Automatic annotation (TrEMBL):
<feature type="compositionally biased region" description="Polar residues">
    <location>
        <begin position="123"/>
        <end position="134"/>
    </location>
</feature>
<dbReference type="InterPro" id="IPR012340">
    <property type="entry name" value="NA-bd_OB-fold"/>
</dbReference>
<protein>
    <recommendedName>
        <fullName>Replication factor-A protein 1 N-terminal domain-containing protein</fullName>
    </recommendedName>
</protein>
<feature type="region of interest" description="Disordered">
    <location>
        <begin position="123"/>
        <end position="166"/>
    </location>
</feature>
<dbReference type="GO" id="GO:0006260">
    <property type="term" value="P:DNA replication"/>
</dbReference>
<dbReference type="InterPro" id="IPR007199">
    <property type="entry name" value="Rep_factor-A_N"/>
</dbReference>
<dbReference type="GO" id="GO:0005634">
    <property type="term" value="C:nucleus"/>
</dbReference>
<dbReference type="GO" id="GO:0003677">
    <property type="term" value="F:DNA binding"/>
</dbReference>
<dbReference type="Pfam" id="PF04057">
    <property type="entry name" value="Rep-A_N"/>
</dbReference>
<feature type="domain" description="Replication factor-A protein 1 N-terminal">
    <location>
        <begin position="8"/>
        <end position="106"/>
    </location>
</feature>
């Protein structure tokens, strides 16, 4: 019997890194590793939207770290980002995406491989409004200037948060 893979949010990574909010993007974990540069335990993730791959994802919250330790977010797992914060790391001068909540859509054990655009059953995530897995419409990306853009220009302010609306 053929496995039906979840639809990834094609184009979401490009939108997120362009300072646009993407509501509940569906991404695949390609690989992750523990970072040991400080006293705080954190993980760096490489994720794919089926088109692009990005390694700028960081997880530092104890609740998510416990779930990583239990093996919930294994290689090739498809996840839904429920909340994340985009910011610029001043030490390296590049954007990072701090994940504060995510859930498993399909385990990596069931998928067993990296999904490409055709396998993830999807079209491009556009401003026209794809629907999420539960049939609810996705929010359009924000067209306002974000705090990430301000940080790049040296202006301080709050970080952009992409929470999930019910």
């Amino acid at each position: 019997m053929a496995v039906t893979y979840p639809q990834l949010s094609h184009g979401a990574l490009q939108q997120i890194l362009a300072d646009q909010k993407v509501n509940r993007p569906i991404l695949q974990i390609i690989v992750y590793k523990q970072m040991s540069q400080s006293d705080q335990l954190k993980y760096r993730f490489q994720m794919s939207d089926g088109v692009e791959t990005c390694s700028n994802f960081v997880i530092i919250l104890p609740e998510l770290i416990q779930r990583i330790s239990k093996g919930e977010f294994e290689k090739f797992t498809v996840v839904e980002l429920k909340a994340y914060t985009c910011t610029v790391n001043p030490g390296i001068g590049r954007e990072i995406i701090v994940v504060s909540d995510m859930s498993v859509v399909m385990s990596g054990a069931k998928i067993g491989k990296r999904l490409d655009k055709q396998e993830s059953n999807g079209g491009f995530l556009s401003n026209a409004g794809n629907t999420s897995l539960n049939g609810k419409p996705r929010a359009e990306p924000s067209k306002t200037a974000s705090p990430m853009a301000a940080a790049k220009s040296g202006v301080s302010g709050p970080q952009s948060v992409c929470p999930i609306s019910a």
